[in-house]
Specification:
The protein is mainly alpha-helical and about 300 residues long. Helices cover about 70% and strands about 5% of the residues.
């Protein structure tokens, strides 16, 4: 099976996809760092934001995007208060199964809402202008590609400043290392968890905006495939630290983009096979994470 030449266009698109996956990895990593919760339902937050954009397509884009953020943050807060807060003392297995149940519940609700007109799938029209291309150095770059890259850099920089230069960031890092001890030392657990949930939801809304520009038809399964790939990337990068998890998300997104560009058009069906085969090889060689420092202990979380 001959491979196509990986050109500048493919590399730019791969970087953009890596940036989107990195944003998702930060959102997943923030909650894991504080709650030790692998939130499989994270993709359904993205889906909720995408449906909001679809249902408000007739609004001004600024209002549509604002509604997306409000819905995703409200839904994430509701889930935390109604479900996760009540289960914080349970085992990781119970929490993980709960996130699976939430994911499929939200998918089922979305399907019920979606079929109100007898069809599955809602188009997003309000953000179509971001799909226009501009020429940069002879390469056609969609505006959403530039947006994804810029957002990725800005958001990661802001999160780094939050964790490294603020009191609440220090509390989040302390909670990530040892939540019980941090509480004994005066860290307000509900405040720390609430901030992590809020930031994670904001990132999910950002991802919803970017993904709906890339894929303007929203279905109940919207965001699910990306979430699975990002979760794999987080494990490959090193789930015990936010920065390694983020690098893992970017790496698997970039690799997916490059492999997709290298495969002939009629062979892209083999893309998941190639990506997950590479993941298995990486985990066999570096089971602790591709970017985890050698000899690091599991208590160095963020």
């Amino acid at each position: 099976m001959p491979l196509a030449v990986v050109d500048a266009q493919t590399l730019v698109d791969a970087v953009a996809l890596g940036a989107v996956y990195a944003l998702m990895a930060v959102g997943i990593g923030l909650v894991f760092g504080v709650l030790r919760l692998v939130n499989f339902a994270y993709g359904q937050l993205v889906m909720a934001g995408a449906y909001t954009l679809a249902f408000t397509s007739e609004f001004h884009p600024a209002l549509s995007i604002t509604a997306c953020f409000v819905v995703v943050v409200a839904l994430s807060t509701l889930i935390d208060l109604a479900v996760f807060r009540r289960l914080r003392g349970q085992t990781p297995a119970v929490m993980l199964v709960t996130t699976f149940a939430l994911a499929f519940l939200l998918q089922a609700v979305a399907r019920i809402v979606d079929v109100r007109d007898g069809t599955i799938g809602e188009p997003v029209r309000a953000l179509g202008r971001l799909n226009r291309a501009v020429t940069v150095g002879g390469v056609n770059v969609r505006q959403v590609t530039l947006l994804a890259i810029v957002l990725g850099i800005v958001v990661l920089g802001l999160v780094a400043l939050l964790l490294g230069r603020t009191t609440i960031g220090l509390h989040m890092r302390a909670a990530a290392v040892d939540f019980r001890t941090a509480r004994l030392l005066g860290v307000r657990s509900d405040r720390v968890i609430g901030l992590a949930v809020f930031l994670s939801a904001v990132l999910a809304a950002v991802v919803a905006v970017v993904l709906t520009v890339r894929k303007p038809l929203v279905t109940p399964g919207f965001g699910l495939d990306e979430t699975i790939v990002v979760l794999v990337g987080v494990v490959v990068g090193g789930i015990d630290r936010l920065w390694t998890a983020t690098l893992g998300g970017f790496a698997i997104g970039f690799a997916t983009g490059v492999i997709n560009g290298a495969l002939p058009t009629d062979k892209t069906i083999f893309l998941p096979t190639a990506v997950f085969a590479a993941v298995i090889v990486v985990l066999l060689v570096r089971p602790g994470g591709l970017f985890a420092p050698g000899g690091a202990t599991t208590v160095e979380r963020v």
